[in-house]
Amino acid sequence: MIPKDVERAKIELKKRNLPIEIEQKRLKEIQEHIEEYSKNENLRKQFDCEFINDYTEEAKNKLLQIIKNKLAEGKKI
What we know:
Blueprint: E1 2-3, H1 6-14, H2 20-39, H3 41-45, E2 52-53, H4 57-72
Parallel strand pairs: 1-2
Helix pairs in contact: 1-2
């Protein structure tokens, strides 16, 4: 799952009201994970689908459908 907009991902994370230490750690990880995923082809090959999260109802429904499909295929999630 990749955020469509990093700044939006940070805003959504802050809405969770996590302890400040955890929030700061996660904010740092967001950028690190995106950078690693985008430049590491071997990492990208490990996934059978890519989901771009734009925090909309449509995105939520697409993610739920992906999960249902994978469960129906008998795959572990």
